[in-house]
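Need residues for this backbone.
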């Protein structure tokens, strides 16, 4: 087993504790239709630099493949997939590219998704993060390549 480990694996939100789980990449699928390729390239540049130096800071956030938000995307989800990557598509792609077999994930956190993403500095439609600092760092890296 080759695990892409998260540095932070436990969160406490509203007095509840959430722990990252080790998930086999074979059980995951990504549906990332809305992200422009330039942004994906910038994020991959950032991950290629930071993960070897610092490791993966946070686990990816996943949901069950049959979660209601994926109904319109069911045709894109293989029958073998148990989970869909909700946040962390770029880290998932990094893990696949570098032949990891497993990755740390947070599962079934839809009720606290926005608070969790805010703690990870990941922008959502409703949290208080105003810019994607990770994307901006990746774009800077690409400018200097």
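Answer:
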């Amino acid at each position: 087993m080759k695990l892409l480990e998260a540095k932070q694996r436990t969160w406490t939100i509203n007095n509840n504790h959430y722990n990252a789980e080790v998930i086999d990449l074979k059980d995951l699928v990504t549906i990332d239709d809305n992200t422009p390729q330039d942004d994906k390239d910038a994020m991959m540049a950032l991950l290629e630099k930071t993960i070897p130096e610092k490791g993966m800071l946070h686990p990816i956030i996943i949901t069950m493949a049959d979660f209601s938000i994926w109904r319109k995307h069911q045709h894109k989800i293989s029958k073998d997939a148990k989970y869909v990557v909700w946040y962390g598509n770029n880290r998932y792609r990094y893990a696949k590219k570098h032949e990891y077999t497993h990755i740390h994930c947070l599962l079934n956190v839809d009720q606290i998704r926005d608070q969790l993403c805010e703690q990870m500095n990941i922008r959502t439609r409703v949290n208080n993060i105003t810019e994607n600092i990770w994307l901006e760092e990746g774009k800077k890296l690409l400018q200097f390549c």
